[in-house]
Amino acid sequence: MVHIRRGDLREQSMELKGLRGKNAPVIKNMRSRIAQEQAEFDAGGVKIHAVRSVHLKLLREIFSLLGPSNLKREMAQLTAALQQKGFKLGIKPAYGETFERLQANMRQVQAKGLEIHAMLKATFLQLNTDYGFSLQVPDEPLVDAYLQDMALVERSHVQYLGLGNAFRLAQPAFADRLVRALSTRLRMVHELALADIEAWSKSAASQLDAQLRERRKNFVRRIEAIDRIAQASGGLDERIEEISNRSINLDQVELKLAELTDYLIEMTAPERFGVTMNDAA
Fold first, then answer.
1. Do 71 and 183 meet the contact criterion of CB atoms below 8 Å apart?
2. Helix segments in 132-171, DSSP class H
3. In terms of Cα–Cα distance, which of 157, 147, 175 is closest to 96?
4. Is the dihedral of CA 94, 97, 98, 99 positive or negative?
């Protein structure tokens, strides 16, 4: 505890001695400059907010394209064709058109992801230049793997639409199972794509939030330091003398502690109880 207190007093003394020579106008100018920097930083926050708005808008569009409601709409034509009574000999064209629309949606998702990536890249570069940030945009999200998954789903189910299954397709129960199985697999592909895009988006946004938060805290710390300087400048010499006296008192405490420790060591030595060192061993 003595060592900790001595370290604290040393730091306080060095800080206060470093304040000598800083008069009130200098302190005022320092505070004004920090306040101006903070105002400029806050003004830049308006641009960041605008970028966030566009980012969220594009994300909502992506979630709309890959959401369950849109999947149901895109499959409505195929579902209607499968639910018709009788033989369904013309089902393959509807099946192919459905997957063309779904793949087109996935390519739209790719385009919107690239748009978000380009926007964040330009914004991060500007923030790094203006404020000394170290923001890095993750690599752009790719959907090639999900397009391949959709092609695999298409190939795996097209076998049920041939002439060999014409009688089975005429049964409402079989057609219903086919639609539900197909929808389930496509929904899984969409959910995986959305999870990847959401994780990518959060990884970009989280580092921006962290560095903005740290910069705002830094402004607060700098202003608090200036306020401490202003408060300490009035009675600076008195405060330095007070710390010096506390340091002297701490030296006396340390001397007394050493004296008492030596006394206790002497009292607990084996010889005090009539025991030699050899006997103790």
1. yes
2. 144-158, 166-169
3. 157
4. positive
